[in-house]
Amino acid sequence: MNQFLKFLFASCLGTTLALGLLFVIGISWIVGMAESANEQQSVKISRNSILELDFKMPVPEKTNNLPIDPFDLDQQDILGISDMVLAIQRAKEDPDIKGIYLNPSFTTLGKATSATLRNALEDFKSSGKFVYAYAHYYTQGAYYLASVADSVWMSPQGVVDFRGYSTTIAYYKGLLDKLDVQMRIFYCGKYKSATEPFRTDHMSEENRLQVREYLHPLYDIFIKDIARSRNIPETELRQIAERFDGFNAEKAVQSRLVDRFAFEDEVFSSIKSRIGLEEKEKLNRVGIEDYFKSRGKKTNFSIKDKVAVVYAEGEIRDGDMGEPGTIFDGKYVKLLRKIRKDPHVKAIVLRVNSPGGSSLASENILRELDLCKKAGKPVVVSMGDVAASGGYYIACHADSIFAEPATITGSIGVFGLIPILDKTMRNKLGITFDTVRTQKYSAFGSAVYDFSPEESQIIQSRVDWIYQDFLKKVAEGRKRTPEQIHEIAQGRVWSAAKAKEIGLVDDLGGLDRALAAAAKLANLEKYRTAEYPQTKTGIEQLIDQLTKKDERDDSVRAWALKQELGEFYPLYQTVKGIRQNNGILLRMPYDLSIN
C-alpha cells in the first residue's frame, strides 16, 4: 500500500510539474504573440496620412477601463475619451495628418462623451484640415458626430435615423406577479423612481416630469449643434425630424442632412483628390489607436508636481476587485490613500461618470476624498455623461464641481429592494419553509419570509436616516441647509444647466476646465497629470485572467455575457449590482438610454 501511494504521489507531482511547465510556456507564447502583434500593428505615419475613427469598440472614460475579449490576442488598446481627444489635438498640429475620416456607424457614446469628441473635431477643423464622414446607416448619435464633418456621405440605400429623442423604461411588476415574487420596497424622495419598475407597470407623473425636463435640454443641444454645423435653421431641423425625412435616402439628401450618396471606395477617391494623391497611389489611413501609440501622450517627467486625475467610472459597488469599469470602494479607497500620501500630488481631479450604487461604498470613497482635502490637496470634480445619486454623493464635497453641458446629475435619494420568495417557492416549486427563533428578529432579512410591520419600519427608518445623512453631506459641500437641499433632492434628476442654476454644480465645462481650476487652487504654474486607477493593456488583462482566478472568472464571464446579451447587457449589470451591493442603494432611477 505504501509503495502504491509513493507511485501515486510521484505521478501526481510529475503531472503537476508538467502542467506548470506547459502553463509557463503558454504564457511565454502569449506574450511573444502579443509582442509580435504589436510589431505588426506598428504603422508608418507618412506624409499625406489620414486619421481614421471607426468606433467599433466602446469609448470608456479611461483607456482600457472596460472588460475585453479574453481570446483576442491582437486586441489593441481601447482608447478612453481623454486620450482620444488628445490624439485629435496632436493630429491637428501634425503636418503628416491631412484630415480625418470618420465612420461612426457603430457608435454607442453617451451624450456628454459625444459632445466632447465633437468639440475636438470642430477644433481640428479650425486648423484648415478636413473631416469627412461616411456610414451605411446613421443612428442619431452617429449623425450627431458626423454632422460636424465638411462632407457627410452615405450609402445609396442608407438612412439617417433622425427623429427626436425618447427614453424607454422596462417595468417588471407583471412578471414578478406571475412568478409570485413579492418585492418589498423602501425609498425616500418622490422622484426616486428606481423602484417604479418593481412596484408599478407604468411611469409615474413625477418621473415623467423629470424625464421630460432633462430630455428636452439634451435634445436642444443636439439640434443646436447640428444646425450650426450643417447651416440648417433649428426650426427646419425639428420639422425634418417630425417628418422623419432621414428614413428616406432621397429625402435625407434633399433636406441637407447628407451631402451625397457614395460607396466607401468613392469616398476614399475623393479624399485622395483632396490631398493631391493619384488614384493609383495608396491612401495611408492611420487608426486613432495606432496614432496615439505613436504620437499621442508625451509626459515630461522632469516636472515633479502632479495633479492626480481619478476616473470614477461605472457603478459603485462594495468590494476590492472585479471587472474594469466598475467603482469598487476597496480599490478606490486604497488608491486615494496612496494619492494622499504622495508628496508630489498637489491636487486631485475626480472625473465622475457613474449612476451610483452602494450607499456604504459611496460613503467610504467620500471619506477618503475628505481626508485628501484635509491633507491640503484641493479636490475638483469633472462630471461626464452621468454623475447621479452615489455618483453625486462622492462629488458633493469637492472644492469645485464642473459638469459637461450634456451631463445628467442629481438623483439625491435612497432606496432598497428586497424580494420575498415565499409564495414563489410554495406555489411554483412546492417548497415550504419553517423556522425556530430565539429572538423576535432572528429571521430578519430572510428572503423566504415576508416582513412584519415592525421589520418594515426598521428598514424604512434606515432608509430615512441615510437620506437625511445624504442631505447633510450635500448641504455641507454646497454650503446650504439640509432643508434647502431637500427641496431640490427627493431623487430628482437634473440637466447640467438646471443643476448649475440650483447650485448642485458650479459651472459648465469639461475635464480641461477642472484641471485648470485644480491647478489654480493648488497654486501650480507647471504640473503634469497622473491618471488613476491603473489600467492594463489587453495582453496584461489576459495574463491576469489566466493567472488570477477571481479576475479570470469575472472578466471571462463579463465578456461572454456581453456577447450573448448584446444591448441587454447593461440591464444585467444593473440587476447584478442591486444583488451584489450590501444594504441601501444610492442609484439613478434607471440606466439612462436615450434613442
What does this structure look like?
With 595 residues, the protein is α/β, with parallel strands linked by helices. It has two domains: 41-163 and 244-295, 2-enoyl-CoA Hydratase, Chain A, domain 1; 306-539 and 577-587, 2-enoyl-CoA Hydratase, Chain A, domain 1 (Alpha-Beta Complex), CATH 3.90.226. It is 47% helix and 16% strand. The protein contains 22 helices and 20 strands. Strands 8, 11, 13, 14, 15, 17, 18 and 19 form an eight-stranded mixed β-sheet that branches. Strands 6-4-3-2-1-7 form a six-stranded parallel β-sheet, with helices on both faces. A two-stranded antiparallel ribbon has the order 5-16. The longest helix has 40 residues, at 2-41. The radius of gyration is 27 Å and the shape is globular.
Query: Measured on Cα atoms, how large is the radius of gyration?
Result: 27 Å
Domain module tally: 2
**What's the number of extended β-strand segments?**
20
Mean of pLDDT: 85
CATH H level, superfamily name of the largest domain: 2-enoyl-CoA Hydratase, Chain A, domain 1
Query: Oligomeric state of the chains?
Result: single chain
Strand content: 15-25%
**What are the low-pLDDT stretches, counting only 5+ consecutive residues below 50?**
1-10, 13-19, 33-41
| CATH level 1 class label of the largest domain | Alpha Beta
Helix tally equals: 22
Question: The CATH topology of the largest domain, please?
Answer: 2-enoyl-CoA Hydratase, Chain A, domain 1
Q: N-to-C terminal Cα separation, in Å?
A: 72 Å
Q: In one word, what is the shape? A: globular
